[in-house]
Amino acid sequence: MAQTIEAQPDRPPASEPARATESADQPAPPVEDPARHWMGMLAGYIRPHRSTFITAAVLLLASSVLGLLQPLAVRTLIDGLTTGTEVGRALVTLTALVAVAAVLLGIGNYLTLRTAEAVVLDGRRGLIRHLLRLSVPSLHSQEPGDLLARVTTDTMLLRQIASQALIDLMTGGLMLLGAVVLMAVVDVVLLGVTVVVIVLLVIIMTVIMPRIRIAALRAQESVGQMGAVLERVFGAFTTVKASGTESAELARVDVAARTAFRQGVSLARWGSVAGTAAGLAIQVAFLVVLGFGGARVAGGSMTVSALVAFLLYVAYLTHPVIQLMGATTYLQAGRAALSRIAEVNALPAEPLDLPLPSQSPPAKLAPGAEPGSGSTPASVTFDRVTFTYPGRAEPALRDFTLTVPASGLTALVGPSGSGKTTVLKLLERFYDPQQGRVLFDGRGLPTWPLNDLRASIGYVEQDAAVLAGTLRENVAYAAPDADEADIRAVLRTTRLDPLLQRLGGDLDAEIQHRGVSLSGGERQRVAIARALLRRPRLLLLDEATSQLDAANEAALRDVIREISGDTTVIMVAHRLSTVINAARIVVMVDGTAQSAGTHAELLEKDPLYAELAAEQALA
Ligand SMILES: Nc1ncnc2c1ncn2[C@@H]1O[C@H](COP(=O)(O)OP(=O)(O)OP(=O)(O)O)[C@@H](O)[C@H]1O
């Protein structure tokens, strides 16, 4: 069938903004220490919740100010008691100060924690959204278990930053300042003594804080490593069991767990040093003030009430100083988590139109492919395509050219590693070629919105996944709007009625993990049913019938032939019996299309094909 092929540039237009980050051959943009931008990142997380955050900060600050006024009220009370004047008013003021400060503290704390939870939610949503949009090469460059840890434990550290660190930093800082000002009002000389002690404390802290950050980062990394090892184990659980390698895997997880432990201990050590230094500094300040102040009271240059008030301020300092210590410790740990989150956010993602969960519409079918309507088959062209997988030296496809007309069955055959699956992956745009063009319906793939392109294609992979859930969920996975009749029809087409009977005719019965386990052949047929229900314009089958018995394979061969009447089907096959009747068979060798034709033609003209056919007794 003749197709009009639009002229396409060899490389996608530079005006496509997302292309720079998605191309398979484009390395990820250099991640120059993401922690450098941690403050901006943090501000980005807090910004949407700034009103609640500021309200919480104001309430906590007000509570602390009321706390600051308490020593002054105590001084008035003591003065009243010593001079024998009326103290009722001072008592009421003190009680009111204590009660209101407590209420403001409670509300402020609640609002802070609420904001922190919202920040964690935003952080997780953003990260998960980015992860689901990751390009295939980006994902392959990562350990899935580690990514999981970043979504779960690293985002949890955001809570600490937002709930405690920032507010404590603000209120603690202001309180420290307030206390210092009020101390100056009470006695400047004693203030000088206190400030010297505090400056010493700050110097100690600048030495400790970087150590805390490094320990936190390493601890988080080892948690990620633990996740990565476990993910590997669960992904190949039966292989681990059959190989008896449980103890080797245990040792691997243990190494990561012990590293996490060591770093956690280091974190605790430096945290304790910081806390002890802070407590000690306050105690030293208290004793020195007591000594100096006592002498000044004895010398008559200071009243007892002023000394008591000053000492109360020194004691009061404990709170903001510990707050500041805690805040800087959390901030260091949080900074480590933020840098790990930033690393994920810097991974190249696809330009997928992925709304937020609250706005998510059901998966969209290709225009003209709604259930019940006929879908128009699409043509496919590979025009001198060369593609090398990231990190590989040899191209998987070299100068590969293929024209597939709309409708009909095209088979790709050839030795293992000749690039057959790669052809299908490029059509799905899991990767983009470095040279040449791939056209779908005459249009270059980069000009298609990715969602629309993929909605037009049904792809049955070599090891098609069956997801935990019901049979209905699995079959209607890519076409959630399909009705019961469509689902039952496609199950009949793919010869899955015996499975449905085993499930008591219940489409909502669980399969796999919590329900009936499927055989390899049944899994393949569920995957085919899923692809067919989508009414694709292009159906890609990668060894999709390799695990079927002869009867089921023959039946599905008929189904595929029938489907290829009004759908374009590209099928990768090792068993030539599956594709013997294909309209065209393409023999692939070493990433190129060596020859193409019908079975009979290829027997004549392609010795490799003839050999393959002879081996399979099909000559
Ligand atoms: N994700 C990947 N990263 C790096 N190299 C890959 C990747 N996938 C495939 N390759 C390599 O690309 C080449 C072509 O692989 P491809 O899977 O397309 O071959 P195939 O003809 O489908 O093989 P088979 O018949 O065994 O499935 C092989 O050398 C393979 O090792």
From TrEMBL:
Domain ABC transporter positions: 380-615
Keyword DNA repair part of the UniProt annotation: no
Domain ABC transmembrane type-1: 54-333
UniProt cross-references to InterPro entries, sorted A to Z: AAA+_ATPase, ABC1_TM_dom, ABC1_TM_sf, ABC_transporter-like_ATP-bd, ABC_transporter-like_CS, P-loop_NTPase, Type_1_exporter
Keywords assigned by UniProt, alphabetized: ATP-binding, Membrane, Nucleotide-binding, Transmembrane, Transmembrane helix
SUPFAM superfamilies assigned to the protein according to its UniProt record, in alphabetical order: ABC transporter transmembrane region, P-loop containing nucleoside triphosphate hydrolases
Chain residue ranges for the region called Disordered: 1-33, 357-379
MF annotations from Gene Ontology: ATP binding
Residues that span the membrane, as ranges: 51-70, 90-111, 165-183, 189-208, 267-292, 298-316
CDD domains, per the entry: ABC_6TM_LmrA_like
Segment forming the signal sequence: none
Membrane topology: Multi-pass membrane protein
Gene3D superfamilies given in the database record: ABC transporter type 1, transmembrane domain, P-loop containing nucleotide triphosphate hydrolases
Keyword presence, Chloroplast: no
Source domain of life: Bacteria
Pfam assignment, any one: ABC_tran
Compartment(s): Cell membrane
Name of the protein described by the UniProt record: ABC transporter ATP-binding protein
Taxonomic source organism: Microtetraspora fusca
